[in-house]
Amino acid sequence: MYPEAPPADRNLTEAVTAFVELRPRLFGIAYRVLGSATEAEDVVQEAWLRWQRTDRSAVVSPAAFLSTTTTRLAINVAQSARVRRETYIGPWLPEPIDTSIDPVAGAERAEALELALLLVLQKLTPVERAAYVLREAFEYGYSEIAEILRLTPVNARKIVSRARKHLKDDERDSVDVQEHRRLLDAFVAAAQEGDVASLEALLTPDAVSLSDGNGLRGAARVPVVGRARVANLSTASSRFWATVEVAPVQANGRAGVLLYRDGRPATFMTVAATRRGIHRVLWVFTSDKIAAFLGSRAHGAPLPSRPVDAVARELTREGNGSSYAACRGLRTAQT
């Protein structure tokens, strides 16, 4: 048993407890708004630092404070990210995250998590994106969304409605998880065998292949459109499939594959599909995004339980509770 903590330590323990309980939701909001696990982690870390610096005795609801802070920070990052992505070479795809442990990635529901939908969300303004995510994935009320985004409830409702309309043309009735896995496995098997006819049978006429390589040699720098072109691209190099090892993974609540070359993870691939077939093939070659995916697997791995008050004391020793790494790795003890 630990001795009773002094008031300052108890206050920090309460702050740590509140943040740790809410952290999955905070990451889920930031990730859906940004489409980047790396940027989402930075946002959540900044939210933690602001939570540490604020007068918490004046905070009525830690959940409201932290959700508001995270959402506004994510919008700011999204606005600057749009400028940075103008110099991106070739198609940009969201960073995939491993969801084998947390299939909904911090949300009450799995909405707005699939890689293909995250890509479509980028068509919205950051504010529209945030409003849509808060409503559809986390079921926030319009009055709550209005307060977070500094709007009236009427305007919040209009923004969510407008976001839904913008997405409507791109929304498709996705197949369930089992059918998605079957289609992905069939696609990979046909590609490995160089079976163009079987690939074409799996694809819709308007299928699109997107390769995120940021200028990497061998990655297509423009979208490849059409059933025949996508099938031919997927089998264009006989050496590609012969020199990789295929490992199944779960990413963003759906099946994916990680392709290893010479023992190193080199490519992530998944598909988006409806009952009509596969309409989008997504390839991620960019090494930073592959590393982020592997990092998300490590962050989701089970850790030994640690009492919250022990972590609070550690944070105090490290400088008035400024260590986000200690807080991120915390698993509260079960009683």
Task: Write a structural description.
The protein is an alpha+beta fold and about 325 residues long. The protein contains 14 helices and 6 strands. The protein has helices at about 5-35, 35-55, 60-85, 115-120, 125-135, 140-150, 155-170, 175-195, 195-200, 225-235, 240, 285-300, 310-315, 325-330; strands at about 205-210, 225, 245-250, 255-260, 265-275, 275-285. A 6-stranded mixed beta sheet has the order 2-1-6-5-4-3. Strand 3 (about 245-250) and strand 4 form a beta hairpin. Helix 1 (about 5-35) packs antiparallel against helix 2 (about 35-55), helix 5 packs across helix 7 and helix 8 (about 175-195) packs antiparallel against helix 9. The longest helix has 28 residues, at about 5-35. The radius of gyration is 22 Å and the shape is globular.
Task: Give the helix proportion (percent range).
Answer: 40-55%
Report mean pLDDT, rounded to a whole number: 87
**Content of β-strand:** 5-15%
The Cα radius of gyration reads: 22 Å
Tally of separate helices = 14
What order do the SSEs take from the amino end to the carboxyl end, as H and E?
A: HHHHHHHHHEEHHEEEEHHH
Lateral arrangement of strands in the main beta sheet: 2-1-6-5-4-3
Question: Which class of secondary structure composition applies to the elements?
Answer: alpha+beta
Shape descriptor = globular
**Could you list the spans in which at least 5 consecutive residues all have pLDDT below 50?**
1-6
Total strand segments:
6
